[in-house]
Amino acid sequence: MPGLRNTEKTIINQLFDQEMFTSTPADHETAAAKNAREAYKRPETQRRINYFLRDLIGTTPLNFQDDLLLLTGPGRLSQFEVQVLLATLKAVVNSLEMQDVTGDGVVDCLAIVTTVQSQLPEHTAREVRKCIDDLFVTRFPLFVPDRPEMDAGEAETEIEEYWDVSPDFLAEAQNLVLFLQAQEEPAPVTASQRVNLFLLKHTYLAAAAQPELWQTLLANKIQIEAQWRQLDRFYLEIGDDYALLLDASRTPLRSRPYFIAAKVAQTLGQGLPDAALNGRIRSIGKQLYPHAEVAAILVRQALTENAFAYQRDDFWLATPLAGRLKLVLDEQEDFDD
Fold first, then answer.
1. pLDDT tens-digit series, residues 195-222
2. Which residues sit opposite 318 in a β-bridge?
3. Which residues fall within 8 angstroms of residue 332, CB to CB, at 6 or more apart?
4. Does residue 186 sit in helix, strand or coil?
5. CA distance 154 to 36
């Protein structure tokens, strides 16, 4: 197949970043996004995208009314997330606001959370609300928080919160349900596709930690490198005992967990036992941010999500990427959380 067109790269990259590609124009849409949306209406574009993704990772996006969903590797959901997702979909679809043809697509947060939590009594409303926010606001951009503006005299009153529901909600809800149904029988993948799925999820592949994947990578090095290169975004670096999928579009984060994780990785030496990692995180966190508390779980996530370190046999080891970072921190600078 000839090389990917720019519109096809835009669609595939958005699927990797947001796990969704919708047919509805976004506010302040870029020319590239508009061209990609128009291009996807053509069957040829759909065929080429499906061919590329099937070759790369062994799967294609679910398509319902030209709204796409691609959950692979990091897209897997926990049992609690699945329960909240399905209950939220049902609550929103059955809400009075969505049933009313004259409605404006705005639902009451408290009403939705209460309905979902009633089906999951073993979890608190706070846990349910956080999961809904994580899924539908942060991960899948189907809800936009809407807090009414207050007058000065209303500062002490309780504020009602709402979610603006995306016009693509019903189509993507159908895609999500189809995905969950298909999870029971995942499509078989080849050895090379397993390597690509691992790199897409973890970024870093260590020969010692994943020997089978490493041997497959070495045996198919040229093909795998060429596959990723087609997107003009990912570049596969292969060392003597590691592979690193570099993302040219990724900008460094400006968050406390990110900086702490980078510094922790640089102190791992020949390896640190997992049982000692939280202590190292707290120690370095206090050095960098003496007046702030940063949850160890967030730093642990930053270690793997940014390919600073990986775990092997209950030990944490740094990747080559960690050693390339030069941290210059100004204590007076206000980094975003």
1. 999 999 889 999 989 999 999 999 999 9
2. 309
3. none
4. coil
5. 45
List of the chain residues with pLDDT < 70? 1-2, 27, 73-76, 100-104, 148-160, 182-187, 251-254, 327-337
- Give the model's pLDDT for residue 49: 95
Q: Is 296 helix (H, G, I), strand (E, B) or coil?
A: helix
Q: What is the secondary structure of 317-328 as a DSSP string?
A: EE-HHHHT----
pLDDT at residue 100, rounded to an integer: 65
Cβ atoms of 69 and 20 closer than 8 Å: yes
Distance CA 241, CA 99 (A): 57
Q: Which two tokens stand for residue 46?
A: 């759909």
**Which pLDDT score, from 0 to 100, does residue 261 have?**
93
What's the pLDDT score for residue 303?
Answer: 92
Q: Residue 229: phi, psi to the nearest 5?
A: -65, -25
pLDDT value at position 215?
97
pTM of the predicted protein model: 0.72
246 has which bridge partners?
A: 235
Structure token digits, residue 90: 């049902």
User: Rounded to whole angstroms, how far apart are CA atoms 32 and 53?
Assistant: 20
Q: Are 175 and 166 in contact (CB under 8 A)?
A: no
pLDDT at site 181: 72
Cβ atoms of residues 49 and 92 within 8 Å? no
User: Which residue from 163, 52, 54, 40 is spatially nearest to 98, judged by alpha carbons?
Assistant: 163
| Tokens standing for residue 10 | 């835009």
* Start-to-end Cα distance in the chain: 44
Q: Is 38 left (phi over 0), alpha (psi -120 to 50) or beta?
A: alpha
CB proximity list for 92: less than 8 A, separation 6 or greater? 98, 107, 112, 165, 169, 173
Structure tokens at 179: 């995905």
Q: Which of 91, 29, 41 is nearest to 66 (CA)?
A: 41
Is beta strand 272-273 parallel, antiparallel or unpaired with respect to 143-146?
Answer: unpaired
Per-residue confidence (pLDDT) for residue 62, from 0 to 100: 82
CB 165 within 8 A of CB 143: yes
Query: 48-85 as b/e, with b when 16 or more CB fall inside 10 Å?
Result: bbeebbebbbbbbbbbbeebbbbbbeeeebeeeeebbb
